[in-house]
Amino acid sequence: MAAGARGGRQDLRPRRPAGRPVGAPVTDSGRVLLDTCVVIDLEKIDLGPLGVVTAPAVSAVTIGELAYSIDITDPVERMVRAERYQGALNQFEVLPFDVTAVKLYGVLAALVRQSGRDPRPRRMDLQIVATAAAHSIPIVTRNGKDFAGIERAVRIVEV
């Protein structure tokens, strides 16, 4: 069996360096990918327990979800959503859903299917997680249950 393999399958998760205690910062680089739900509720979330997060990023898929959410009839809510969308563009690095992420998306969808779940309703979530996996950074989410079955491929941090 190859190094890093588990049960014949390669474990793609970033590893905590030996000697780093549990509860230490989520990432040595300070980079994390924020799930769409975290961007939406950012004012309500304390990222302090994650350690030093110096470079939060979002996926281009999240930007697409935020752009789509602006199309609402209530003018006040439309303004709030438009400000959130523009704020995400201004505040965070936007990581592309590129060829590497596309390949990982296929792996993640297969893992979800192998765990007995249907990957179709989770397509956007899986594309966002694939973006994190492509950049070897953890994903920060409020919906950890949405990512059941893919823990081998990416570090999922629930807040």
Can you describe what's shown?
This protein is α/β, with parallel strands linked by helices and 159 residues long. The protein has a single domain (28-158), classed as 5'-nuclease (Rossmann fold). Helix content is 38%, strand content 14%. It has five helices and seven strands, in the order βββαβααβααββ. InterPro entries: PIN-like_dom_sf, PIN_dom, Type_II_TA_system_RNase. This is Type II toxin-antitoxin system VapC family toxin.
Can you summarize this structure?
By secondary structure, the protein is α/β, with parallel strands linked by helices.
Main CATH class: Alpha Beta
Tell me the strand order in the biggest sheet: 5-4-3-6-7
**Fourth-tier CATH superfamily name:** 5'-nuclease
Helical amount: 25-40%
Shape label: globular
Helix segment tally: 5
Percentage of β-strand residues: 5-15%
Strand count:
7
* Alpha carbon gyration radius: 16 Å
**Structural class per helix/strand content?**
alpha/beta
Q: Mean pLDDT, nearest integer?
A: 84
Number of domains: 1
Keyword list:
5-stranded parallel sheet; two-stranded antiparallel sheet; about 160 residues; alpha/beta
List the helices and strands and how they pair.
Blueprint: E1 5-6, E2 9-10, E3 31-34, H1 36-40, E4 55-59, H2 60-69, H3 75-91, E5 93-95, H4 99-114, H5 123-134, E6 139-141, E7 156-158
Parallel strand pairs: 3-4, 3-6, 4-5, 6-7
Antiparallel strand pairs: 1-2
Helix pairs in contact: 2-3, 4-5
